Structures are given as C-alpha cells and as structure tokens.
Amino acid sequence: MSEPEQFEVLILGSGEAGKLLAWHMAQSGRRTAVVERRWVGGSCPNIACLPSKNEIWSARVAHLTQHAAQFGTMITGPVTTDMAKVRQRKRNMVEGEIAFHLRNYQTTGGELIMGTGRFVAPKTLEVRLNDGRTRVLAGDQVFLNIGTHAAIPSVPGLEAARPLTHIEALELDYLPSHLVVLGGGYVGLEMAQAYRRFGSRVTIIQSGPQLMTREDPDVAEEMQRILSDEGIQILVAAETLNVNGRSGEEVGLTIRTPSGEQQIECSDILVGRGAFPTPPGSRSNRPASSWTAVATFASMSGSRQRHPMSGPWANVPAVRSLRTYPTTIFGSSGTISPEGTAARTIGWFPTACSPTHR
Fold it and tell me: How many Å is the maximal CA-CA distance in the chain?
C-alpha cells in the first residue's frame, strides 16, 4: 500500500450531513476531503427529495389539466403526458443542484474525490477513482455518511424480475401501461399517485393491514379513499408469494389475500418497501448488521428541536449549527471491519430522522 495522503477531516459520502460538515470544516481552515462514489450532494438533490417532488409536481399539472373543466377551463383535445420531457425537466433541476454543490466545494476549499472507498487500515481509505486510478487517504477524523439502499424483499423471482426502485422510477422515459407498487408506505404511495396521474393503471400491494402502517387508522383510511377515488387499485393484508417475468416487459405476480390467491399481470413493478443502511464499500440490498464506525451521522429537520448531546462532539460548531447529529460515535480504535467491535463508546446521540430512502 502506498503512503496515504493525510487529511485533518476525511468523510466517506457526500450526503446531507457529510457535505455540510465538509464545507464548514474546510472553510474553517482544516484540510478536508470527501469521497463520493456517484451522487454529488447525496440522495436528496439527485434521486430523492427534490427530484421526486419535481416529478410529482409534473403529475399534479397533468391531474389539474385532466380536471380543468371543474375550474372553468375547457380543453377539447385529449390530455397526454410526454414522460421523456418530464424526465428532462427533472434532470435539468438535478444538474443545477450538482453545479451548486460543486461551487460550494470550490469556494470552501473542500476536496471532492469521485470514487469508491474502502477501509484498508484504521482511519485509512483506499479509493478506486472513477477514472481508474487509485488514491490512499488517511484522516485525523473520519466520518461515515453513506446512506441507505432500497430494500428488495425476499420474494421468489422478485430480484430476477429487476424491479424498479425509487431511483429507476424517476428515470423512466415511458409510461407503464400497468404499474404494480409493492409497499404502501410514503414512497410507494407518492409514486403510485404520480404515475396514475400521468395515465398509468396502478395497483398497490400492501402486506400490512392498512396503508402507512405507522399512521393512525383514520389517516390511513382517508388516504386509501383518496387514492381509490383517483382510480388506484389497493390490496391490503396481501402477501406476494412469487414473481415471474421482467419489469418493463411483462410481469406476473401471485398474491395471497384474505379472500384467497389471485394472479396479477402488469408491465412494470416498483418496490417501495423501505431501506437498509449501507455498509462501507457495499452495494448490497441486505442490512448492515456487523460493522463499526468512527462516526456516523444523521440529518435533522430544521423544524425539530435540538437534542441534548454529550461527549466530545457536544460543542462542535459544525454539529450544533447545522443540526447534524452523530447517532453513535465509537472510540479509540477508529477501525472499520466486518466483524470488528468498538473499543469503547464515547458518545450516544438520538437518531435524528428516518433513513433517507426516497
């Protein structure tokens, strides 16, 4: 292994917590590097919060146009949606967001390194750069900001069907004739409603007894009424037994409901069943259950109150001012390994929000 380049602050992942911490530390004069495999700025500006709302707004425009007569505007011809233009509008927004992030790295002095990092020694990353070269980086302080992966349920045939996740759903340039959404949580519902408004036939399959299982029953019932009124078929307490075919072509599902088994044929299948934390260097859709970290961060909504903190990070301005909170900081070894354990825990902090998985 070559001699590592030394940084005061080394961050793996450029998501919400990582980028804000990097910009603050770099602007404060600390030599700071951020390693990012693909999404500059993390999921929010690229594949989650902002692009999803961009396409949902396009779907709302389509919906209002289809019901324009209710508002006194008469449209005599058919209303259709050009999904390639919907996607391009979203892409234009994302390009603007990336440009903004790159300018921030330039103005603050933080170094953004595009590549895949893996730990090869305590507080030391080997980075396979996207251009094929390799760099070895070490940090006095190392932070993990590596997000989540979409969860793919263990249903026979599902993985082989190459289902859409929220990422691929936002990149479609065609309108599915019949979209089946596995999962009745927030992501599944917003994508289901958007594609219904664009003109797809949509079926939601929810394994739990109601949509949005964490909400009160009356809220879930009202949401089901709204979506049903828009023409979405909803199956609750429904177990997906197997899947065959290929999403984007032809897919068949066997479903068990309280009234018995049934077959559903569709053109595309979207999985909206939550997310798992991403282990360092992993591309797996399986949960991370046995790795230890120097520091892992979660982003906190600006509308929430600050939580009391303890330990050595309690007075770090980048943590306090940016509402970016460590969930747990592990102690002296600074080593990340598949089977390792922390030498000691030096601070415990509340998880600030749910994993970003849209």
Answer: 71
Selection from 88-97, 148-157, 333-342 with the highest mean pLDDT? 88-97
Angstrom distance (rounded) from CA 275 to CA 15:
16
Distance CA 271, CA 260 (A): 23
Return the axis-axis angle of helices 83-108 and 16-27, rounded to nearest 10°. Answer: 30
Which of 297, 22, 277 is CA-nearest to residue 145? 297
Q: What CA–CA distances, in Å, run from 18 to 22, 61, 200, 300? A: 6, 35, 38, 13
Count of helices and strands (H, E) across the chain? 8, 17
CA atoms within 13 A on the CB side of 355: 16
Say which residue the tokens 């961060």 belong to. Answer: 297
User: What confidence score (pLDDT) does residue 279 get?
Assistant: 66
* pLDDT digits 0-9 by tens, 34-61: 999 999 999 999 999 999 999 999 999 9
Q: Which domains does the chain have, with CATH numbers?
A: 5-47+89-149+276-348 (3.50.50.60), 152-273 (3.50.50.60)
Closest-CA residue to 279 (of 226, 339, 190, 351): 339
Alpha-carbon dihedral angle through residues 34, 36, 39, 42, given to the nearest 10 degrees: -50
- CA-CA distance, 146 to 39, in Å (whole number)? 11
175, 81 in Cβ contact below 8 A? yes
Q: What is the pTM of this model?
A: 0.79
Query: How many residues belong to the chain?
Result: 358
Tokens standing for residue 61: 């425009």
> Residue 102, by phi and psi: left (phi above 0), alpha (psi -120 to 50) or beta?
alpha
Whether the Cβ atoms of residue 22 and residue 14 lie closer than 8 Å to each other: yes
